[in-house]
């Protein structure tokens, strides 16, 4: 598995397990629920976005669902950054 | 025996091309017995058709690739045809569809509501199926209940018999703007500041914008002149009840065994089906906590949900069935409300917007265990 595939897979898991604004992340049959948002996350990371920018992006996606606010977007953004860093460190 | 004022409505159906719901007294004084018989036969035929189709009602408009734009008891508001490349194409005849919807919901249909329908058809033809269904949802029609479905069915029968949409509308005292409706007429753009989503009448309940005619927007109440259809329906309902009772007695007859005839009929068994109130306060972990079915219906669809619907092969009617008649309703975190039936799970946001949905084939062990608990 190359670096991009690994990163994509890990982002997918984070979106499902940590972000999961729709509450379906535990269901293995719905593992594709947030796949549509992975490319934009990867694009932001590719453009060297900050954690805050990534958080704002996730909040922007959530906005259309008009859910009660919580802190998962911030935690998710942080975790994605840490994961990316981990992948880069391992490759270095 | 059919009373005179019912018979003239039946005749209106039979002779729709000439006189659909035209001035009363359609049946002349010298109508023969044979003519009367024919009228009754025709009504019975219609009734039989209704009884067959009413078994599966579609409360919301739905575009099916084979039939077209469907509502109520399988009534087609728009037909699918094939172009020269064999591609399915949805066509909406604005006048016909407007007459059908107005008859079903007893309100004139505003031009912008029809324009949205046309737009949905264009999107569907461009293979933007999710967007097309979103446009349909945004028209904001109320759910097509059985009564509305029956009115729709009759109106369709009248049109099929040859009545023109305009005749049908005019005979029911609809707003005159309808006849002048032109789909190409420039529209007032969205966001112009007009209030939307309210009934125009002072004594009416909430109603979608699609039914507000320009005159109603000016404060005039809907004409409510659908007495002809109402009277016809009353008569049909009476007939329907009669035939239902006949069916019931004929079903019971062969079930009676010799023993029954001695000991009497088997007592009726009352099996109560599970309902949300049976599970109020029960905690199902991440799935949520059981609550009473809230006064929250499906009001709109998020684009994410629309895509999941398409991907997962879930129809709007499946979702409405689940939200209207759930086995259980769970309050989840962040204000989400989870509706579950044996076939579909639907998640709404606190405002009634569908945010995601999945079908039984995607139920995981937790959901299956929950269903097992419900049916225990």
UniProtKB/TrEMBL annotation, chain A:
It comes from the Bacteria. This is DUF1871 domain-containing protein. The lineage of its organism: Bacteria, Pseudomonadati, Pseudomonadota, Alphaproteobacteria, Hyphomicrobiales.
Automatic annotation (TrEMBL), chain B:
It comes from the Bacteria. Residues 240-250 have a biased composition (Basic and acidic residues). Residues 186-225, 240-279 are annotated as: Disordered. This is Uncharacterized protein. It comes from Methylocapsa palsarum. The lineage of its organism: Bacteria, Pseudomonadati, Pseudomonadota, Alphaproteobacteria, Hyphomicrobiales.
């Amino acid at each position: 598995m190359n670096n991009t595939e690994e990163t994509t897979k890990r982002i997918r898991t984070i979106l499902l397990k940590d972000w999961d604004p729709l509450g379906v992340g535990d269901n293995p049959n719905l593992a594709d629920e947030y796949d549509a948002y992975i490319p934009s996350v990867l694009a932001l990371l590719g453009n060297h976005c900050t954690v805050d920018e990534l958080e704002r992006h996730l909040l922007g996606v959530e906005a259309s669902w008009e859910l009660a606010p919580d802190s998962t977007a911030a935690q998710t953004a942080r975790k994605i950054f840490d994961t990316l860093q981990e992948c880069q460190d391992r490759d270095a | 025996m059919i009373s005179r004022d019912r018979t003239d409505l039946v005749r209106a159906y039979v002779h729709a091309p000439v006189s659909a719901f035209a001035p009363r007294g359609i049946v002349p004084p010298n109508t023969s017995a044979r003519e009367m018989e024919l009228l009754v036969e025709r009504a019975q035929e219609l009734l039989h058709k209704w009884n067959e189709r009413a078994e599966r009602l579609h409360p919301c408009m739905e575009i099916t690739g084979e039939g077209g734009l469907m509502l109520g008891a399988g009534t087609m508001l728009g037909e699918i045809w094939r172009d020269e490349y064999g591609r399915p194409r949805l066509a909406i005849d604005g006048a016909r569809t407007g007459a059908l919807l107005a008859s079903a919901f007893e309100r004139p249909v505003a031009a912008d509501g029809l324009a949205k329908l046309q737009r949905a058809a264009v999107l569907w033809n461009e293979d933007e199926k999710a967007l097309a269904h979103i446009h349909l949802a945004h028209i904001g029609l109320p759910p097509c209940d059985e009564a509305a479905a029956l009115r729709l069915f009759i109106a369709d029968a009248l049109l099929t018999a040859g009545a023109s949409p305009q005749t049908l509308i005019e005979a029911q005292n609809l707003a005159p703007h309808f006849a002048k409706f032109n789909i190409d007429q420039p529209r007032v753009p969205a966001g112009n500041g007009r209030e939307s989503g309210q009934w125009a009448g002072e004594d009416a309940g909430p109603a979608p914008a699609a039914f507000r005619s320009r005159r109603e927007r000016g404060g005039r109440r809907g004409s409510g002149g659908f007495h002809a259809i109402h009277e016809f329906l009353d008569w049909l309902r009476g007939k329907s009840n009669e035939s239902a009772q006949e069916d019931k007695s004929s079903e019971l007859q062969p079930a009676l065994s010799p023993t029954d005839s001695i000991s009497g009929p088997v007592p009726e068994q009352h099996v109560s089906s599970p309902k949300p109130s049976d599970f109020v306060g029960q905690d199902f972990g991440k799935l949520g906590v059981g609550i009473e079915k809230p006064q929250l219906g499906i009001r709109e669809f998020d684009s994410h949900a629309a895509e999941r619907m398409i991907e997962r092969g879930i129809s709007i009617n499946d979702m409405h069935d689940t939200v209207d008649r759930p086995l259980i309703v769970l309050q989840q975190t962040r204000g989400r409300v989870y509706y579950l039936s044996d076939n579909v799970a639907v998640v709404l946001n606190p405002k009634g917007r569908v945010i995601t949905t999945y079908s039984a084939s995607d139920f995981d062990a937790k959901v299956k265990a929950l269903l097992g608990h419900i049916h225990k």
